């Protein structure tokens, strides 16, 4: 038998009552959830991509590189609080002893310097931390769930996808950013005891964990960012100066993902070099996928501009790239540059070396211009030691910008208790209340417990929602929807609506009881939970408490939860005791 609600105390001022009626989902979707549907459509290509199907984003060059990703994160839900009563030999009317639920795990991003792409985030789109365990009797709190850690490379910038607001940036190894907080555990009935109410029959459900889409972008953090036309020799230089082994070939766009290398300059820390794919004219507008790469050099302290000496017009190349930089971002264009004339081992370049160096100095407006051969490593170590001194002389890198959005809150911690009442003239008598705070309260309400429903009603009143509804013309019996719950509006309710099946159940208990009295079976005569204000725990379909009978329903073993293993010394009661 399934009783969803029993409310018996005759003069309870219950405000709302759960009904068994369900609104049709099509209606709810068409009128109220349009935004959500849109969002799902928008991101469904993420799933297609995951399954290797043709993605509609194929024409989006940024997606070909593992430096942007979308991630859906959800914190675990808190465990439910429990309703239980202490029952000991000689003390049958023990106090409430329902423990609190454990809190759900949170999702963190953690900076890991051994990573340099967001590739793994492309394979894992949904990250969900585990739920907290439910509280159990004997004041035992449920276990808290472990946090879930997602590792990301240094230079990871995190935004909330829908608003594009900056949530934070991970730069140093081990740094963590909380992106979806787990919900707190619901309180057990022990927490609701007051002097007046010594046997509270309500508990909270666990708070749902926070859940959101993130947009994640990688900006490599390096001391020196390489810059130059395709085929200029950037990767060759990285290979010459560090242990990195990037792909090198005599065709443009050999490099398609940024490469990092560390050059040992004898200072212990090393100089972090970042080789990016070549840039061409129009890069700032995305030509040659420029925009995707320019982002990487944003975080470099110094730019190393590699000029190909064998090019038809090396000085013009240099000017073109600098113009692209300016177009893309003024901030980037202002970064200090060191310029190298590469491939001076080639005789034709050697011939015009002095002339080219002079023109480059003029075009650059400074004298940090060096001839180098990345292929023969001529002048490379001098270049590196001068670079390292130049980097050290730079002012400290700009601090990460201040976060614009705080993702460290879950559920009820959101600041705003704003709500909105939506009604559609096409559906008279139906009201949807939306608001983070009230939705969280609804989710945490244990609708099976009359006292919890009553508490919810008081919360609605306290938030001014009930009077606002009345003011807008809501009438007794109107349908109120909050999140996935729906109720009947009962503004001045003193006699709670009692579902017919409960009256039937009571009748059944009553007749059983009468029969028992007749047959002198006293025990059975007591089974009148409805009349006595008793109630069932719908999860286990167990009666868990009586009103003021001097006998308490015994807690079944499985009320401790599936994973409760009695420890030594624990007293476990069974109903057969
Ligand atoms: N002779 C000579 N050839 C060089 C030198 N540096 C690079 N090269 C050659 O130039 C070609 C391109 O070199 P890469 O290092 O792949 O050039 P890149 O700038 O990384 O090119 P992209 O990744 O396509 O932007 C290769 O064939 C290299 O061997 C050099 O100093 N002298
Ligand atoms: Mg390259």
Automatic annotation (TrEMBL):
Residue intervals of the OBG-type G domain: 222-392
Occurrences of domain OCT (ranges): 411-491
Cross-referenced SUPFAM superfamilies: Obg GTP-binding protein C-terminal domain, Obg GTP-binding protein N-terminal domain, P-loop containing nucleoside triphosphate hydrolases
Gene Ontology CC: mitochondrion
Keyword Mitochondrion in record: no
Entry keyword set: GTP-binding, Magnesium, Metal-binding, Nucleotide-binding
Listed cofactors: Mg(2+)
GO MF annotations, alphabetized: GTP binding; GTPase activity; magnesium ion binding
Transmembrane segments: none
Annotated Obg domain residues: 63-221
Positions of the UniProt region annotated as Disordered: 78-103
Domain of life: Eukaryota
Biased composition (Gly residues): 92-103
GO biological process: ribosome biogenesis
HAMAP family given in the database record: GTPase_Obg
PANTHER family the record matches: DEVELOPMENTALLY REGULATED GTP-BINDING PROTEIN-RELATED, GTP-BINDING PROTEIN OBGC, CHLOROPLASTIC
Family: Belongs to the TRAFAC class OBG-HflX-like GTPase superfamily. OBG GTPase family.
Name listed for the protein in its UniProt record: GTPase
Source organism (scientific name): Fistulifera solaris
Classification of source organism: Eukaryota, Sar, Stramenopiles, Ochrophyta, Bacillariophyta
